Amino acid sequence: MDLNGKKIVLGLTGGIACYKAAELTRALTKAGASVQVVMTSAATQFITPVTMQALSGKAVYLDQWDDRIANHMPHIDLTRDVDAILIAPCSADFIFKLAHGACDDLLSTLCLARPGNLPLLVAPAMNAEMWNNPATQRNITQLQLDQIPILGPDAGVQACGETGMGRMLEPEQLLEEVIALFQPKLLAGQHVLVTAGPTFEAIDPVRGITNHSSGKMGYAVARAAQQAGAHVTLVSGPTTLQAPYGVQLIPVETGRQMHDAVMSHIAAQDVFIAVAAVADWYVSNISTQKLKKNADGNHMCALQFAENPDILASVAALSPAPYCVGFAAESENLLQYGAEKRIKKGIPLLVGNIGPQTFGQDDNTLVLFDEHGHTNLPRASKQLLAQQLIAEIAKRV
User: At 76, is the secondary structure helix, strand, or coil?
Assistant: First the structure.
């Protein structure tokens, strides 16, 4: 799990977004984190400490004079053996306290008393007018100057009925931010383009030719690159997956559309990772109407095919070209075919696996081919393999 062994202090301040903190606590613990909830008095007006205790499995702290800690110093002890503090939701009032060093309750005091190397993350949640108020923006600027990450907010319909900026990020988005916090920023500032999923080549308006690729590996690679600090663009064929948080998604359908999308964005990229299972051929005589069988059922449809552009080869041939990584799924002789394909494509790194049994699965095994030979990555989750792959790419770029 992504947060195994991590200890998080989750602070709740007053706001209706406290209801999201319940799901966030569940998500953090499911990811392997130990969550210690600390609430302000205002937060208890929106959600009860009993609820947060039940979800976190730990007693909730409210009072800076709490005598459950022997030395009566919860503002010290609660932050001395943890990995991060996350304030979600963080109200306009609490942002003011953080910006000005005010500490009149347990949560604000423990934030001020935290060790200098302990990350503090803030997820604002408030009415749009409160967020846009110059006073709030001055306080946000001060937090940024103090190197406190601001997570969000988002825009949308608010509990008050108004619409605008100020909604707290969703729990799954905040979870991704926390996970990314602990990932080494091996590709910080790099621009990475990833292709993922299958392509779909139409036969007629309702039928087409595709493959079993689920897109899971490509989406995992995009997520790992984003968590490693890269600016990630994901060009994806049709999948049922949600784009990883923080990644720019460009949806396409056909191999030619994928080629055009890649080539129109490639100039700004430092790394290109071609994970998509692109059809080698497309139907050149697509019917404008649904094809029908004859009454006797013996009608045969004569399809004509033309070759799709080779996206990886097109990118590798550019001058200058980004660092190119290809993927190859083989049904046999992986070591031979993988090594040969890397040379044929003219790329520095190729990732091979035995298919098609990996399609749609959550785990995999990979073999990395470069000029020195090959390296095996043992069976693991696709997300862990993606992180290992990004680490290998970072060594080479």
Answer: helix
